[in-house]
Fold this sequence. Notes:
GO cellular component, one term: vacuolar membrane
Subcellular location: Endomembrane system
Family: Belongs to the small GTPase superfamily. Rab family.
Oligomer: single chain
Structural class: alpha/beta
Strand order of the largest sheet: 2-3-1-4-5-6
Membrane topology: Lipid-anchor
Bound molecules: guanosine-5'-triphosphate, magnesium ion
Number of strands: 6
Protein name: Ras-related protein Rab7
Number of helices: 6
Strand content: 15-25%
Radius of gyration: 16 Å
Amino acid sequence: MDVSRRRTLLKVIVLGDSGVGKTSLMNQYVYKKFNQQYKATIGADFITKELRIDDKMVTLQLWDTAGQERFQGLGSAFYRGADCCVLVYDVNILKTFESLNNWREEFLKQADPDDTNTLPFVVIGNKIDKDGGKKRMVSERRAREWCASKGNIPYFETSAKEDYNVDDAFLGVANTALAGE
Ligand code: GTP
Ligand code: MG
């Protein structure tokens, strides 16, 4: 079988503090829907999205996770085999940005990859629409500097609410995951 025509399944794990918009980003990307109401994710579940990149059909298996500690407790079997880990924070809440390193380390610990340098992370700064950006607590520059310091992690800014840059961010996720294949 022609390798280039084979369907590629990419496992993507989405991590980040509670309320940053992980579920909202996925729902906007896959279903083009946004819900103003907050409903905490419990445990982990995935949705899939098919996309075509060049001549390749790619299936993204997007795993949503719980930011709230009491709903966590995913074993390392869950993380293993991940092709990409998306770290999400809320640009309006500093603490969620400061948590990124913990999420990154949790993933590295659990997924236990052979080569941590090539592990494909993507960072998303979400909710850039909020209050017209006036109450923003983390500048794009600061976020990009952090990403650069962790091995040039690709960085995207999004609004799940306004559907701003969401497609581009997940295309970046797919490309990053493919690059590690
Ligand atoms: P957990 O499941 O607890 O980990 O939270 P989560 O990261 O999945 O957050 P969720 O997607 O549930 O969003 C939390 C709240 O933020 C909801 O009320 C959303 O409507 C809102 N929200 C998500 N994305 C955006 C955004 O881009 N802009 C604005 N203004 N609100 C957003
Ligand atoms: Mg959620």
